C-alpha cells in the first residue's frame, strides 16, 4: 500500500532527521518544536530539548503551543530561571544545535522575525520579534532553520535583521565575535539549502521527492545556485509519518 504525505510533512521529517546525533537542542516554538519533538520520537530518542522558558529535558506528548505551555514544565527533567538558561547553557557554549524559524531569510541565512515592510502607503507588519533567537544564532554550536519556501520568505534583502546567520559573507561571524558555526542547513517544504564553504551563500543541495530545481528557484527571491551534485531526500517512512501525526493529533496539539 502506498504511503501519502504532504509537503509540510516532508519538511518536518527532514528537519527532525537533521538532529540525528545531536546531544541537545535549543528549541524555538512552531516548526522547530515540531521537528525537535519528532526527532526525539524517531531519529534521536536521547535528544535533550531545552526551551527558552527554562524547561530542560522536556518530553511533551503533544506539540507545545507556546513558550509558556504548561506541559513543557510538567515533563521537564529540570526547571531553571531564564537567566540561567541563557548564561549557563547558551552563552557558555553548552548547546549543540539551535533550531529556529524565520519570517524572512536572505542568501547568507540572516533572519528576520521582527517586522515586514508591506510597501508604500501601508504600515509595517509587526512580527513576534526576536525573543532568544539572536542569542541562539550567536552561541549554539550550529543552527538549523526551518520554514516554508516562498519569494516572500526567501528575500534578496531583509526588511530587518533580527538574528545574524553569516552576515554578509565569510569571516563576518568571527569579526562580530559570534560563537559556533552559524546556520548549517535550511530545511524547507521544497528541499534543503546549505551555505557554500567559500562564499557562505546558501545553495540548494537536496530536493524533496517530486520537486524540481525550477520550482525552488522560482520560490527564491535571489538567483539561487545549486550544488554540483544535487541530491534527493529520502521518502518519509511509515514510522516517521505515524510519529509525526500522533504528535499533531494528540489532545491540545497542532491542528
UniProtKB/TrEMBL annotation:
Keywords, comma-separated and alphabetical? Transferase
Q: Does the keyword Transferase apply?
A: yes
Alphabetical list of SMART domains matching this protein: CoA_trans (SM00882)
Xref: InterPro entries: CoA_trans_fam_I, NagB/RpiA_transferase-like
The record's annotation in Pfam families points to:
CoA_trans (PF01144)
Write out the GO MF terms: CoA-transferase activity
Asked whether the UniProt record includes Flavoprotein among its keywords, one would answer: no
Q: Enumerate the PANTHER family for this protein.
A: ACETATE COA-TRANSFERASE YDIF, CHOLESTEROL RING-CLEAVING HYDROLASE IPDB SUBUNIT
Q: Say which family it is in.
A: Belongs to the 3-oxoacid CoA-transferase subunit B family.
* The name this protein goes by in its record: Acyl CoA:acetate/3-ketoacid CoA transferase, beta subunit
Q: Identify the species of origin.
A: Streptomyces albus (strain ATCC 21838 / DSM 41398 / FERM P-419 / JCM 4703 / NBRC 107858)
